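Please predict the structure of the following assembly.
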Amino acid sequence: DTAVSQTPKYLVTQMGNDKSIKCEQNLGHDTMYWYKQDSKKFLKIMFSYNNKELIINETVPNRFSPKSPDKAHLNLHINSLELGDSAVYFCASSQVSTEAFFGQGTRLTVV
Amino acid sequence: GQQVMQIPQYQHVQEGEDFTTYCNSSTTLSNIQWYKQRPGGHPVFLIQLVKSGEVKKQKRLTFQFGEAKKNSSLHITATQTTDVGTYFCAKGSSNTGKLIFGQGTTLQVKP
């Protein structure tokens, strides 16, 4: 059983397209996150949801819109993709102040 | 203000040699977590340190938290090829679960 699963694993798309990444966790955690890892491996938080409510939005462009239909799911929709959006996007979940569990990552390539 | 500085960025060692990565913060940390990311993989939690001066060991890995709770280190004794990967420290938030990651140290081990 995969604790945090995200799909797709790879995503290649053209500039200007809209795409979504899905994430689900079966750990019963209250909090879910999206992190972006750039080509230099730097990991930066984008969003955090606690029980379906947005609690962190780290100055991410409006083209990125997270949606949490329930506390086990956190999806990420990206509009009008740009070359600079190419990165690996990780979903994660945790209970506050404890270890985070990461999904396998989605490698997004915008061409 | 919220950054966590991690050095070195890269380390190449011969198998059997020791390895250390260091994290520093300008502000007091409520806790610090360590993660390992294998090439092509996702971050995997190693440990969390909470108390001033805390030292924890996991087999060949030794984690330390400074007395002032502003720095931490991970030391690997007698590296093996299975230790290859990028090691991240991360500053944890006590109320949101948000992680602020250091830049990571990528370890290469020559057999």
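The mean pLDDT of chain A is 94. Residues 4-96+106-110 of chain A form a domain with the Immunoglobulin-like fold (CATH 2.60.40.10).
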